[in-house]
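Running this now, will post back.
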Amino acid sequence: MEYKSGLAFAQQLDHQDELKSYKSQFSHPTQENGNPYIYLCGNSLGLMPTSTPDAVKVELEDWAKYGVEGHLEARNPWVSYHELLTDKMAKVVGAKPNEVVVMNSLTVNIHLLMVSFYRPTAQRYKILMEYSPFPSDRYAFESQVRFHGYDPKEAIIEMMPNEGESTISLESIRETIEKHGDEIALILFGGVNYYTGQAYDLAKITEYGHRKGCVVGFDLAHAAGNLKLRLHEDGPDFAAWCSYKYLNSGPGSLSGIFVHERHARDFDLPRFAGWWGHDKHERFLMSDDFKPMPGAEGWQLSNPPILSMAAIKASLEIFDEVGMDKLVEKSKNLTSYCEYLLHELDTDRIKIITPSDPAQRGCQLSLSVKGADKSLFNQISVAGVIADWREPDVIRIAPVPLYNSYEDVYRFVEVLKDQLVRP
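Update: finished.
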């Protein structure tokens, strides 16, 4: 698409956008003057669907009406509530339904999956991770390594960017796996690097890792609901993601996991067990012997928090209606338009460090601010933009295709332009 400057062009793009009606299906924060903020922070917390309060209210009403009997008598019986999410979540991440379940929080799930899939030996004990992962991942990896009696400085290999660059090339990843693969027990990358916004080639990383006998997993916190994922086809052993960023399920909401179906009936895999992972046909017989369900459901621990799942259900209904193909198509256009406008700015104070190739990013752009000065971020915040600052020097913006418009992007760049010329 050939982009042009000016508000009229942004409004023309919005007029042509077949997803434009979905913007009104989300609640948008407003300033004290009553004007809506320009919300570009869906990579941190997605906006609330307007259908969410009613979805939660249904469960509150049934709790009030039925008490404990709601597990069977509620309009959406709680005993099987998680199953209402499975098919739609599987579509979002490109998996089979038996490979997916929604449960726990993200870092809890990372730990649970590492119990099963990080099985170090004297010869093969290292973890290969991306450059500058989200700190929670780093903490999880280091604590797991220590738990197994290894020194993180020896057992963790962190990929580093190429000289003079902010991102990691696929060739560097391949070379590292080729060089160290015989020592690597687990490759665990993010799907999208939270800081730079670089999207990794999950299929290739999986291929390289499996070729060397490594287990491969992904933290898809910044990828689920953002990228067109094909987890079953790409073939990693496992993955996990949160649901409160691009999946709009509310602060601190539940996580999803993927376990490839080739592990579905490998009941010898070590795991931390809980009764909700027990065979559901025998669960209430209260057996002393744990009998895990096949597939991802067998990693569940406890009965799920229904109110949180109701919010996830409301959002997934929108995703199911739109489909990831249309979302990703608009995402690429919207992000490329934003990139075009940013390149039009006459300034050396900011630099886009996110890859320019749409195949290597989602809807996030990371703007490195010269001199690591947070004042520019503070100025655009006061001027009505909700974005995200990450130390030491990056403003992250995410024009989300479900609820951001081309005019939102245009107005953000105009705000940024005004603040850049201020002394």
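Residues 81-320 form a domain with the Aspartate Aminotransferase; domain 2 fold (CATH 3.40.640.10). More later if anyone needs it.
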